[in-house]
Amino acid sequence: MTLRDRVARTSRALAAVAAWRSLLSGTSVGVVILALTWPFTTGQGRATAIAIALAAGVIVSWWSFRKLRGTGFTVESVALWIEERIPSLGYGLVTAVERGAPPGVERAVAAVDWSPVTRDATRKALLAPAIGFMAAVALLAASMTMAPAISRLANRASPGPRTIAGPLDVTVRVEPPAYARRRAESLRNPSVVRALVGSVLRVNSDGRDSLMLRAGDQESRADQPWRVGARPVALQVSAGSSSRLIAIDPVPDSAPAVQLQAPPRDTVLATPDGAFALGADVRDDLGIRRAAFEYIVSSGSGESFTFVSGTIAARSLDGARTATLNGQFSLSALKLKPGDFVHLRAVATDLRDDTAAARGASETRTIRIARTGEYDSVAVEAAAPPEADKAVLSQRMLINLTEALVRRRTRLSRETFGDETRNIARDQARLRRQVGDLVFARLGGDSSAEHGSEEQRAAMTPEELLKAAESAAASAGAVLDFEGDETPVVAVNRPLLEAYNFMWDAGRELEQVAPERALPAMYRALEAIQRARAAERLYLRSRPPRAVVDVDRVRLQGKEKGTPAAREPRSPAAAVGRADLARFARLVALARTDAAAASDSLLVLRIDLLGNLPAPAAAAAADAADALRNGRDATESLAALRRSLGPGVVASDSLSRWRGAK
Amino acid sequence: MSEFVFATAQYESGDWDSAPLVPANIIDSIARYTSIPVAPTGVVVSLASADALRYPFLFFTGHLPVRFSEAERAMIRKYLDRGGFLFVDDHNHDIDGAFHKTVSEEIERAAGPLVDVPKRHAIYSSFFSFPDGPPNTSHELNGWGDNLIHRELKAVMRGDRIALLYSNKDYSSEWSYHPENKRFYSVDNTRFGVNIVVYALTR
């Protein structure tokens, strides 16, 4: 290879280095421009930014190459460049290349190796542009990653109206929960997405990988699925400064609707034998998992009850939307006893997990097994008998007081003894009147038989009064359909009549200050009351006994004093109020200047009011949002929405501070 | 100011009238300890009727299984949402009893989840102070029902307010006596009833 050939090869190498250096410089400039504009551009804006970056890169590369090349990489200039870096050549190389040197000089020059000089120059020329290029690429990567955050910061920093760089085209794929057995669907640029609670939304926008989803405090990347919760949300899909607001309307999975067809009504059965048919209709919006009849048997009375529960005719329905459930309830199999209650209902669960929300139940039917002899006891009253006035001293208490008085007799003066005996006599008389009320109420239908006509009875002796009572019993028995020679009412109340009689005896002895002689009658009165208490009483449920409190007499007579706590105002209830109407008015005004912003505001208002809005109003709001976004006339939808919002509600808290007890 | 009327809730299933003297007893206590204007007798109001909305406080008790009708369920929801206070007491005092099982299921379905009422809740200091939480009943102390002393009451909340108070302590038995017989008690056991009513009327 001649010297000229070697220099020509070095020349090409240097030209290549210059080209690479220029390319790296230009590319770095382009990448930096792209990195700086990435967070603030999207769609068309970003395409423009890419074009500008490309042009800038080309221009810088070209300019740099031109500058590096200078007059060009000729063999002579490269030989001179080598001579500058290896002075020992003594211009021999230039001479040899230009004119041809003497053979001795040429051999000496040929022996010199200038490739280290070339390598060193190459390293120096490419190192800085390469580092710059890598830094630019790193800047671009950081910019792309942090684009949403930078965009938000930029939006926050600018107090002016939010500007949307361009409409964001999105596709929302709605995947219902697996148990619903429904197909997924894709929606293009939706304003409102109605999806079953638990559905998964997948949002994409022409393959953009920087798509962000945000609703309230919740934020995620679009490649993460978005799960639909129970509350409506405004989902903001954003990429850079472009965004789209989508209202997510959750559709709750309803619990199964269950209607019990048989037995059709509450029933009283005479005997606990045989069986009766059960029937129920079940329907569900998605599908029914299983259904059954459920029963509870209550046995007992008063304060003592026992319960047995179970299911009948359980069926697995494997997702059917409607079903009919049939079965039989065997009274004999459950060994029911007279007086037992059976509470029956049909229940069903839908395809969700077996949670309370997935369970539906029908109305409950009550089947009662009649008590023994119940059908003979038609003389029962429609209401519970009024309870005795518990303000009076009981017969047992009167006996205790009398016995104590008798024991203390020797220590008391005659006058004190007489006073205390007469006090007991008055209490005995009061109790007797109460018992008399019960007796006469039952027999004569007059609940205040004794003291209601006190004057009339004052003239009667106890024997006459008792005779009148028995006469009333006889007349009552005559008109009622009783069996045997004794009415059930009399059977219940005869002990009370006896007690009433013995109370008269006891009272008479007490009035005569002879408590010892009163005690035997009092004992027998107590025995009679106990028998009456143990007797079976039958009554249908109706009005409870009426107790009237003498409020004025007891007002602030309590021995203990409480301290009223400070009254706290309640938090206001949410409703469509004036504030919401004002929001509506603002968004209507905004629609004239910024339809996209008005559309977003409308969707957010719709989300806030969804619980209070009727379905047509919600649909009108969605229509109006769509129309505003797509440049159509939204007047009709907005007017419909405004009508459903109604007039403004004026709320005022007029509650005064409660001052408590005075 | 209109006077407070003690209203007992009447429902289709179960024995809603099992504690007939509780209203008179609580009315007596309200008059005895506070200056709240109070009607001398209680009223009975159907839980399915809109009449329930006329009363800020409803008393609900029974022994038997409770199954609400749709109308009752809807009215309970409406009543609580509109600021009413429903006091539900298990007359059985038995957590395994059918009343407890059914009524708690129905409450959760109609009104929302039942949560424990902490011992420092305002209802324990709204008038009388009960630093240890709900007062025990003689039925609990005697070992009746489930033989347990229930330390806490439960509630359905509306915001920070108790909308439904659920008791498993059998206050229905504890308070069902004629108010004149309070004179035989060294400590009036209906004082907590005053707290409940005062809380219902002032929160």
Give a nutshell description of this structure.
The complex is a heterodimer of chains A (662) and B (203). With 662 residues, chain A is of the alpha+beta class.
Describe the structure.
The complex is a heterodimer of chains A (662) and B (203). With 662 residues, chain A is an alpha+beta fold. Chain A contains 19 helices and 16 strands. In chain A, the strands form 3 sheets. In chain A, strands 10, 11, 12, 13, 14, 15 and 16 form a 7-stranded mixed beta sheet that branches. A 5-stranded mixed beta sheet of chain A has the order 3-9-8-5-6. Chain A has a 4-stranded antiparallel beta sheet with strand order 2-1-4-7, with no helix packed on it. In chain A, α3 (75-85) runs antiparallel to α4, α12 (462-479) packs antiparallel against α13 (488-511) and α13 (488-511) runs antiparallel to α14 (515-534). The model of chain A is unreliable at 159-165, 377-385, 442-455, 475-492, 538-542 and 648-652 (pLDDT under 50). By secondary structure, chain B is of the alpha/beta class. Chain B has a single domain, classed as Domain of unknown function DUF4159 (Rossmann fold). Chain B has 6 helices and 7 strands; from the N terminus they run βαββαβαβαββαα. The mean pLDDT of chain B is 90. At the A-B interface, β13 and β14 of A face α1, α3 and α6 of B.
Give short descriptive properties of this protein.
heterodimer, A: alpha+beta, Immunoglobulin-like, five-stranded mixed beta sheet, 16 strands, 19% strand, elongated, B: 203 residues, alpha/beta, Rossmann fold, 7 strands, 17% strand
